[in-house]
Each structure stands twice: as C-alpha cells, then as structure tokens.
C-alpha cells in the first residue's frame, strides 16, 4: 500500500482543544462561514496517479479521521481512494483505488466514481457517490472497518446525483436525499427525499427544495451537500446553489433547516449564500468558480463545524462555522 503525506499548517485539532479541525474567525471579519487560512489543504497533483483531489468525504473513525477521496486520474476519469489523517488537515492518501465486493462477495469495479458522501448509521459507514449505471446515478456501499468495502444495489434509477443519507432512521425508515438530473451537466435540479425500510427499496419520494429564491445565486439548481447535522432546531443541511453567468456556472454554499420528523419540510433556508467563490483557488482551476461542499464535521459539545468543500474542481478546502450562530443567521435571513 503506497501512501503520500499532504502537509499544511495545522490548527486546533482533536489532540488539543477541539475534536475537529478548527480555526477562529479572523479578527475584524463578520462572515458566518469563514475559510481556513491555509487553504487549499490538498493541492494539484497530490499522488502519482491523480491530478486533482476535490469533492471528497470525511468522517471520524476510531482515533483518526478517514477520507473517501475523489481522485481525478490523468485520463480525467475519477475514482475513489481511501485517506487517513490525525488532524483532519494533513492527509495520507492511498495510491490505489478502493477495491469493492458486491453483496455476493465477488469483486466489482466502478467505471467511474465521484463526489462521495460518508454517513455513519448504527455502527456502519455508508458511502454514496455518483456512479455509472449507465450514466450518472447514485452508487451506494458500506464498510465497517475501512478495509472491506461492499457495493450495494443502486438505490435509484439514473439519471441522478448528490445522494446523501441521513445519519439515523426517521419513523423507522432510512432517508436519502438526491438530485434527479440528466446525462450531462444538468441545467436544472431539485433536492428530493426518498424513504426506505431496508436501504434497498426506495419510495415515497417528496420534493424538498427547488432552485430559485429571491436571489440569483441558486437560480439554476440546488443539490444536497454533507450529511445533515441533527440539532435541536432541525436538520442542518448545507447545500450547493448554482447560478448561470455570461462566464459560465457559479457554485456557492448555502444552508437550510429541515423539520426533524419530516425532513421534506424546509423550515428555513438562507436567502443569501454563506460562501461563494472569491479566493484564487476557488475562482481559478479546472472548473473555475466552484465551491462544492461534500462533508462536515460537527463537534456537538462546542457547536463548531468544519465544512470540507471542493474548490474549482481542483483543490480540497475547509471552511468553519459555529452551529448556534449559523442557525440564528439562517432563521433571521430565511427565504422560505
């Protein structure tokens, strides 16, 4: 197994003050979500086979952080690689892609795999990604130890992207967010909630959120980001919103609060973006002007949140927020 260490300056980590990466808001800033000052944490050409790592999933596992990384190969096809970190900032990334077994124990290989999410449910880590079924669809698999990975049946028909599980059942059903799409770059997109008794058969589909709102930043489409965070005020869902400009699409980050017992109901939704491409690593890259969130670490005790996002389809970056402050902001600046 080959590894590479991606090194960057560290911040408060689980070994010091916070069990997640954390950096205080810059002096003089009033931003609700602020960037890590050592972004990007993963730069271009991080491993021999991969030109870019971005739009990746992160979670805590035992005494370390684990990453399911989107690695775009030098032939430009993406695959998923495992990564490990002691601080959530500096990553050791495996050079070989994840090997999958199907539910019969037979080896299976993905044609491509990208934009993963990682969700812990009852001691099992479930992975969703954009799969080839054929064409863009939602892949689903699981692992208990990050050594053996099992690919499950595709939960929904193509074309679909941005599959995101909830971290617990609601009314004894698993919940999955998705964004039905087309076979290309999709000039439309709504967030849909689906329910399942067993993670195999999915139904009772409900519209959660459409693009639009009073502003333009999310006028073309929206898609679920990291696994929703359960709070006393509702499910905190970060999402991406997309607008069309004369220079192409722009991806920004927003957030909403969903009802705890009926997450198809949006109680509050940010009128304005929380973070839009402004830094050079967000505005310059393989796909300029993209901030695409795929993972969030939440320290329940302190309310600190670290959001991992892809920048310009080239880099991996982190932004921070404080849960209670963010929820208050969403409620006071809602577009619902």
Explain how this protein is built.
This protein has 336 residues and is mainly beta. It is 4% helix and 47% strand. It has two helices and 24 strands. It has helices at 280-283, 323-332; strands at 3-6, 34-35, 50-61, 64-73, 78-85, 91-94, 100-102, 107-108, 114-121, 124-132, 136-143, 149-151, 160-165, 174-180, 191-196, 203-209, 221-224, 229-231, 234-245, 248-258, 266-269, 291-299, 304-311, 315-322. The strands form five sheets. The chain has a six-stranded mixed β-sheet with strand order 8-7-12-11-10-9, with no helix packed on it. A five-stranded antiparallel β-sheet has the order 1-6-5-4-3, with no helix packed on it. Strands 17, 18, 19, 20 and 21 form a five-stranded antiparallel β-sheet that branches. A hairpin with a 2-residue loop joins strand 3 (50-61) and strand 4 (64-73). The longest helix has 10 residues, at 323-332. 49% of the residues are buried. The model is unreliable at 1-9 and 13-17 (pLDDT under 50).
Structural features:
6-stranded mixed sheet; 5-stranded antiparallel sheet; mainly beta; 336 residues; globular; disordered N terminus; 2 helices
Helical region count? 2
Low-confidence stretches: 1-9, 13-17
Please give the order of strands in the largest beta sheet. 8-7-12-11-10-9
Order of helices and strands: EEEEEEEEEEEEEEEEEEEEEHEEEH
Shape by Cα distribution: globular
Strand content: over 45%
- Secondary structure: helix percent: under 10%
- Biggest beta sheet summary: 6 strands, mixed
> What is the typical, i.e. mean, pLDDT?
94
Please give the number of β-strands.
24
Termini Cα gap: 49 Å
Class based on secondary structure composition and strand pairing? mainly beta
Radius of gyration: 18 Å
